[in-house]
Design brief:
The complex is a heterodimer of chains A (304) and B (250). Chain A has 304 residues and is mainly alpha-helical. Chain A contains 12 helices and 2 strands, in the order H-H-H-H-H-H-H-H-H-E-E-H-H-H. In chain A, strands 1-2 form a two-stranded antiparallel ribbon. In chain A, a hairpin with a 4-residue loop joins strand 1 and strand 2. Chain A is globular, with a radius of gyration of 20 Å. By secondary structure, chain B is an all-alpha fold. Chain B has 10 helices and no strands. In chain B, helix 5 crosses helix 7. Chain B is globular, with a radius of gyration of 18 Å. Chain B has one domain: Ferritin, core subunit, four-helix bundle (Ferritin, Up-down Bundle). The chains are: A mainly alpha (304), B mainly alpha (250). The interface between A and B is large, with 47 and 48 residues.
Chain lengths: 304, 250
């Protein structure tokens, strides 16, 4: 089926009626570009997430932990692999072009992966706070996603991310019952990762957000962010940790947590490739890509 | 009816050499996850690394009698107490070296597991059967990639150079292990690993052509008591989190 819409209004009516777009459809260019940009950023983020976590695989404290974090990183890179394939099907860029743009610092990835995992506590905080934020966002996209291939792949991604969350939850539980050194290490990780994880949801959605109008996303950023806050504030307090937000307070009337003002400057810096670890992350990835170009070139000759 | 062999101390030390090799081979593969030439290779190295660590875990459990003892045993051993070979301790900085190590190690690993298929210790029979199934995929992966890269002159020369650098380290893999004679006499294992070396060399030369015979002199009887100069860095990476607080459970 190769569906055609004569006017954007017809296309939007199709989406509002719950229609699902497939790659063979003659979708409006603006929609094609918007879906592509969204999936490309997701793919880049999965890959950069894998690179953020890879630093700690060889140092994992024990064989079982090591096998767990290998599987986790393998999942993240596997997600990137699937996402690059469906992004490439939109015929805007090839997978190679997307990866080269990423390593040249020309395309975006999520703010959290512009930070360095400096300790094993950071590795756990990523699984506990960041992966949870990512899953909340992905579930909201999956719920009503109008682009068929993305919706199908999100189903698998969300299922695998569930295992990552469990690794984070189990690790936090052990640390919270552990030694003072462990608790202090993880408290520092919360201090470092709380705000970046919270900012993963982005600033409040604009009233005319195209991603919402075209059912690529189904929830506003601020709604998802609040869902995460309401879950993780009591969880971290329950484990005996503090949250680095002096404005955080319990609203008795509304029966909910209110956070202090958000400083969006760090997010803006990461989006301009000026985050704390952006330069190292991109240059190391780029160097590895360059150093192994002979393999790809040789295999291209074989395939031709 | 087969009588289950008791794993005496010398036999345990013999098995430990295999466990240490598998552990450090898996460890070395993890270093390439995320920086391999393309995404499929990142995932392949992750998968193969997990398998090798899984084999190590099963062998350590057998030696120690309890899987909960593995991490304490691994972290607290002195370097001279390890029984790993030079090949898995060596830090390979180039992808072609990592790939050639993968090929060389996995073309030797099934030959090692085969020696346990008729073991008088039933657990070793079941571990070896499981490992051999996984190893078939490892060999297929290494072979497919190497076959393609050898067909292009520029990549062939890189692989051949890496191979010549690695072969002396591979020889150490086949060097005699402490406890091997005891393991053979109690039928825990059906023969000496170094007797499998000609089979491995035939595989090697069938794939890469006849190589300089001088490369193959040097299987010695140091019995894995010396450590590679890269070992300390490797061991420190393995223990970095553990050393923060040896009392901690993570």
């Amino acid at each position: 089926m190769n569906r055609v819409w004569n006017a954007i209004e017809d296309f939007e009516k199709f989406l509002n009626d719950g229609g699902v777009v497939e790659p063979v459809d003659d979708m409006p260019n603006e929609y094609r570009q918007a879906v592509f940009d969204f999936i490309e950023m997701h793919a880049n983020s999965e890959l950069m997430g894998g690179l953020t976590e890879r630093d700690w695989i060889p140092k994992a404290p024990g064989l079982r932990h090591k096998m767990t974090v290998i599987a986790k990183t393998q999942d993240e890179i596997g997600h990137a692999h699937l996402l690059y394939m469906i992004a490439a099907d939109l015929k805007i860029k090839t997978r190679k072009e997307m990866m080269e743009d990423l390593f040249a610092g020309k395309s975006k990835f999520h703010n959290v992966f512009h930070y360095q995992a400096k300790t094993w506590g950071d590795q756990v905080a990523i699984a506990f706070l960041v992966d949870a934020a990512a899953v909340i966002s992905q579930q909201a996209v999956f719920k009503n996603c109008s682009y068929g291939p993305y919706k199908r792949i999100l189903k698998r991604i969300i299922a695998e991310e569930g295992f990552h969350l469990r690794f984070g939850e189990e690790s936090v539980l052990r640390i919270s019952q552990g030694t003072e050194i462990q608790k202090a290490l993880f408290q520092q990780s919360i201090n470092d990762w709380w705000w970046p994880a919270l900012q993963l949801f982005g600033p409040d959605s604009k009233p005319n957000d195209r991603l919402l109008r075209w059912h690529i996303k189904s929830e506003r950023n601020e709604v998802l962010r609040d869902k995460w806050v309401q879950k993780f504030v009591p969880l971290l307090h329950g484990y005996g940790f503090t949250i680095p937000d002096s404005g955080l307070k319990w609203d008795e009337e509304e029966n909910r947590w209110e956070i202090g003002p958000i400083d969006w400057e760090p997010l803006k810096r990461t989006m301009a490739m000026g985050g704390p670890d952006s330069a190292r992350r991109i240059s190391e990835a780029s160097d590895s890509w360059e150093k192994t170009s002979w393999v790809r070139e040789a295999l291209e000759i074989v395939a031709s | 009816m087969m009588v289950k062999s008791t794993l005496t101390s010398p036999i345990k030390e013999y098995l430990l050499a295999f466990a240490d090799d598998e552990h450090l081979m898996g460890q070395q593969h993890t270093e390439w996850i995320g920086i391999a030439p393309f995404l499929e290779e990142d995932m392949a190295f992750a998968s193969i690394g997990q398998d090798e660590l899984g084999h190590a875990s099963m062998l350590y459990s057998l030696v120690l009698g309890d899987s909960s003892e593995i991490d304490g045993f691994v972290f607290n051993r002195k370097p001279e107490e390890w029984r790993s070979c030079q090949l898995v301790e060596s830090n390979h900085r180039e992808w072609e070296e990592a790939l050639m190590r993968h090929w060389c190690y996995d073309m030797a690993e099934d030959l090692r597991w085969e020696l346990f298929r008729k073991s008088s210790h039933p657990e070793l029979v079941s571990i070896s059967e499981r490992a051999l199934k996984e190893e078939a995929y490892h060999r297929r992966h290494a072979e497919a990639l190497v076959e393609n890269l050898l067909s292009v002159p520029s990549s062939k020369s890189r692989l051949m150079e890496a191979l010549e650098k690695i072969i002396p380290e591979v020889l150490d893999l086949f060097s005699p292990m402490p406890g091997e004679e005891d393991a053979i006499s109690s039928e825990v294992v059906s023969g000496k690993y170094c007797d499998m070396f000609p089979v491995w060399r035939t595989r090697l030369e069938n794939r890469f052509g006849v190589l300089d015979p001088d490369l193959f002199t040097g299987i010695d009887d140091v019995t894995r008591t010396r450590r590679h100069s890269d070992f300390d860095v490797l061991f420190n990476r393995i223990r970095e989190v553990f050393l923060l607080d040896p009392e901690a459970t993570w």
